[in-house]
Design goal:
binds fe (ii) ion; mainly alpha; 16 helices; two-stranded antiparallel ribbon; Hypothetical protein af1432; 2 domains; globular
């Protein structure tokens, strides 16, 4: 088997599957989000796997496939009192959205009648069927299937069930990578800003920079509890470092408010405004690349050619340097390195 070829085919299949629904944004997800998240979780899973001697290939395939049925999820169901409806295992239940086009994944979903399952469960079924078709051996398929199945954890899981579900270190690792990505680190900040901007614009017609930045320390604090609930020591270490880095970042952003004019143009505040310039379907990979290859070089040029006083120039250069550090760290997180 040509593993790289298979991996590429699986990536194409996941991307194709994500494109079968017409809607863009549901709740906290938008079209580009799911694929960017998938790539980040996969990269982090593989890096954590390398650190503890886990099976990186299993993590790579499970990371690629773990949210393959995520697009079926619509709005979270609520009861008459507005409380979220949960399954017997404590998972929030979603309205199910049907795709407007079909492929092999949606055909399997229909054939195995997965409409009443949560996406880690349906994703595990689809993963198993697809990997068998690609000719992977039975033990390998079972291992990858169980990683995908374990990427969500039942709320009140018993100790015995926990031991079964998370017997393999890879199962713990993908759970940790998937939990970290939307909650902890710059990846979580990127998600938060786009969620916040989307709802702010819906509600008030505009995004308010100062109020948003002032609320950020609270946002970071609210994620502390996630760190201790991760399953592996390696992930807890990464997450603690991410929390520290995020705290420093939001402190810098608040300090930037004292020199709005320079920092909206050259600094982290300018980055926030750049991020929210695209609200419909923001693309993490594109925006990161744009910052590094267009946004920063353009400002460096303006700084050199502009007619700022020397004090202003120093401030602007320091602001650009903060953005450079931010984008380097954002890229490293994207690759699962930090
Ligand atoms: Fe998921
Ligand atoms: Fe996920």
């Amino acid at each position: 088997m040509d593993y790289q070829k298979v991996l590429t085919e699986l990536e194409d299949l996941v991307l194709e599957t994500y494109s079968l629904w017409d809607h863009n944004r549901i709740g906290f997800q938008w079209r580009h989000y799911t694929w960017n998240h998938t790539k980040r979780v996969r990269a982090m899973g593989m890096e954590l796997g390398r650190k503890v001697g886990g099976d990186v290939k299993k993590l790579e395939l499970a990371g690629t496939l773990h949210d393959i049925t995520k697009k079926y999820d619509g709005e979270i169901l609520t009861d008459k009192e507005g409380k979220r409806v949960t399954s017997s295992q404590g998972f929030w239940l979603n309205e199910k959205l049907k795709p407007s086009q079909q492929n092999v994944v949606t055909e399997l979903y229909d054939r195995y009648d997965l409409y009443n399952t949560v996406h880690h469960d349906s994703g595990a079924v689809i993963t198993e069927k697809i990997l068998v078709d690609f000719g992977f051996d039975t033990d390998f398929v079972e291992a990858v299937r169980s990683i995908v199945f374990a990427h969500l954890k039942p709320i009140n899981i018993t100790d015995d069930d926990f031991k079964i579900l998370y017997k393999n270190i890879e199962n713990q690792i993908l759970y940790d990578a998937d939990t970290m990505d939307p909650n902890i680190g710059y990846t979580a900040f990127f998600r938060n800003i786009h969620i916040h901007a989307h709802f702010a614009i819906q509600r008030n017609g505009k995004f308010e920079l100062q109020g948003y930045v002032e609320g950020l320390p609270k946002f970071v604090d609210s994620k502390d509890s996630f760190v201790n609930h991760l399953l592996t020591d390696v992930a807890r270490e990464v997450a603690a470092n991410r929390q520290t880095r995020s705290r420093n970042l939001v402190t810098e952003m608040n300090q930037e408010l004292e020199n709005l004019e320079i920092n909206r143009k050259y600094g982290l505040l300018g980055v926030i405004e750049y991020f929210v310039s695209e609200v419909e379907d923001p693309d993490f990979a594109y925006q990161l690349n744009y910052l590094q290859n267009e946004w920063i070089p353009q400002r460096q040029k303006q700084l050199t050619n502009g007619n700022l006083s020397s004090a202003e120039r120093d401030d602007a250069q320091a602001a650009i340097d903060r953005v450079t550090t931010f984008t380097n760290d954002l890229e490293a997180e994207y690759k699962g390195l930090i």
